Amino acid sequence: MNLIHTDIAPGEVVARTPEDLPATSKTVTYNDTPLLDAYSASVISVVEKVGPAVVHIRVRQEAKGNAPQTGGSGSGFLIAPDGFILTNSHVVHSASKIDVSLSDGRSYPAELIGDDPHSDLAVIRINAPSLSSIKFAPARSARVGQIAIAIGNPYGFEHTVTAGIVSALGRTFPATTGRLIDNVIQTDAALNPGNSGGPLVNSHGEVIGVNTAVISVAQGICFAIGSETADFVAAWLIKDGRIRRGYLGIGGQEVPLHVRVARFHGLAQTTGVLIHSIEKESPAAQAGLESGDVLLTFDHHPLRSVHDLQRLLVHSRIGDRVDVSYLRLNQKQETTIVPIDLEAP
């Protein structure tokens, strides 16, 4: 028995065990097992729900000159039960042949429906029965700190799954064309080889992003194209096969507006688009915009997020003068800008 001596009167001997001490003096032990079990159960549930919709993509590219035929592979996921599959542009771009393997072992040839290298997204389609599909999460539902689960199908018959959290929102990432992709999610869920084009999902099994890149020297920092951008681009690719978009030459992200500033200028919106980079001799530079400006409206439409701006630039006012309002050092200013046509290569 461990004896603990306390203050005692002369001649008095008192022995106490730890069990005799007040509750505040006892060592408290925490049991994380139920929490870990709940986390595991959540990931398992998501994989079982989403896994059947994640596919393996194999591509072949025609030989040029004396060069041998080349190939590659990646992942994708079904966004509709009629065979439409969303993946990365760099997975299928310039492919002469595309084959898709499902998680149940079936394999089908695929047709390229639309390709947009500027957002690194593409849609392909297979003709197959009994297909599972997954849906996008509600707009602007992703939160920093929430569970993020990356699922891929790099080999065709089994999934790879990694889990982590959403580390940051509103990042930008350069596409292969040099254009900055906005609304990119940063996560610490590791992106394994062959998982590019697979979904990044939340704990409900809804797509919050499309896995697209990893910076190897940054200790596993991975990036995914946000669901709003992916859903928007996919819809246009299915409809027209390409996107004709206006180009301003800026990189930006959504930022909150100070309440007093918004009230002073009579703004109904609570967020705007912060310009953090401007390309030289671009329409934005010619309009006098600068890094640090916060865009408020475009063509008299409020800009609450980068997605709002991207939506307005598609098939909208290309070559025409457009009124733009913005904040510079909390002062509201206006200018006009002429979007130019950004043709896909």
What portion of residues belong to β-strands? 35-45%
Poorly predicted sequence stretches spanning 5 or more consecutive residues: 1-18
Q: Could you give the order of the helices and strands?
A: HEEEHEEEEEEEEEEHEEHEHEEHEEE
Which outline best applies?
Answer: globular
CATH classification class of the largest domain: Mainly Beta
Which class of secondary structure composition applies to the elements?
alpha+beta
| Average of per-residue pLDDT values | 84
Largest sheet, described in full? 7 strands, antiparallel
Number of domains: 2
- Largest sheet: spatial strand order: 5-4-1-2-3-7-6
Provide a count of the helices.
6
- CATH architecture annotation of the largest domain: Beta Barrel
Rg value: 26 Å
> Roughly how many Å apart are the termini?
80 Å
Question: Please, could you describe this protein's structure?
Answer:
With 345 residues, the chain is of the alpha+beta class. It has two domains: 32-243, Thrombin, subunit H; 245-342, PDZ domain (Pdz3 Domain), CATH 2.30.42. The chain is 16% helix and 37% strand. It has six helices and 21 strands. The protein has helices at 33-50, 89-92, 227-240, 259-264, 283-286, 306-313, and strands spanning 54-61, 70-78, 84-87, 97-101, 107-109, 111-116, 121-125, 147-152, 160-174, 180-187, 199-201, 207-215, 221-226, 245-247, 250-256, 271-278, 294-298, 301-302, 322-328, 331-337, 340-342. The strands form four sheets. Strands 5-4-1-2-3-7-6 form a seven-stranded antiparallel sheet. A hairpin with a 7-residue loop joins strand 8 (147-152) and strand 9 (160-174). It is globular. It starts with 32 loop residues before the first helix and ends with a strand.
